[in-house]
Amino acid sequence: MRRLASELGVSQPVIYSAFAGGRQAVVDAVAVAGFEAIADALEDVPAEPLARMRAYLDFAASQPHVYEAMFSMPSELEFGTGTGPDALQRAFAGIHAAFPGPDAVEAEVAWATLHGLATLEIGGRLPAARSRARLDVAHRALTRRSD
After folding, report:
1. End-to-end CA distance of the chain
2. What angle do CA 138, 102, 33 make, to 5 degrees?
3. At 66, is the secondary structure helix, strand, or coil?
4. Angle at 95 between CA 91 and CA 100, to 5 degrees
5. From CA 136, how far away is CA 127, in angstroms rounded?
6. Which of 18, 21, 25 is nearest to 75 (CA)?
7. pLDDT per position as a tens digit, 15-73
8. Measured between alpha carbons, how far is 79 from 91 in angstroms, rounded to an integer?
9. Ramachandran angles phi, psi of 8, nearest 5°
10. In sequence order, what E strands does 2-112 have?
11. Whole-angstrom Cα distance, residue 49 to residue 107?
């Protein structure tokens, strides 16, 4: 919030006063905007697994603070209920289109895998030099079909 206030040239209380719900409303607004942006990024590439996976990880790497607001900061957004904000539903639909199935379980596992990779890479917990190799392994694992 300090950084946001600094970039806007205002104090933190001014930011909070612009949102009726205070700090939580600001975090939720940033998260919703992030879901809009990641949905756009996913929709801008073909609905094939590797392209969508790469788009997801590229977004997270290029917008680490927004990504943190989307997933790591406390939020009042509803996940997995189908009743959350349209932006969140669009983002999930972008993943689901690449990992279709009779239910959403494959897409949920794909999202969880991508989120884990993104979070660990953003936090510097995994070597950047092996990012592509991890993506390739995740892609193979998520697209392997068992009959």
Report:
1. 50
2. 60
3. helix
4. 135
5. 15
6. 25
7. 667 766 677 777 888 899 999 999 999 999 999 999 999 999 999 999 998 999 898 88
8. 11
9. -85, -15
10. none
11. 10
Which two structure tokens, joined as six digits, stand for 13?
């209380």
How many CB atoms are closer than 10 A to CB 66? Answer: 18
d(Cα 145, Cα 11) in Å, to the nearest integer?
53
Angle formed at CA 38 by CA 36 and CA 41, multiple of 5 degrees: 110
- Overall residue count recorded for the chain in this entry: 147
Q: How far from 137 is each of 33, 70, 78, 103, 144, CA to CA, in Å? A: 30, 25, 30, 24, 11
- Of 135, 27, 17, 85, which is closest to residue 93 (Cα–Cα)? 85
As given in the structure block, the two tokens for residue 94 are: 């972008």
142, amino acid identity? L
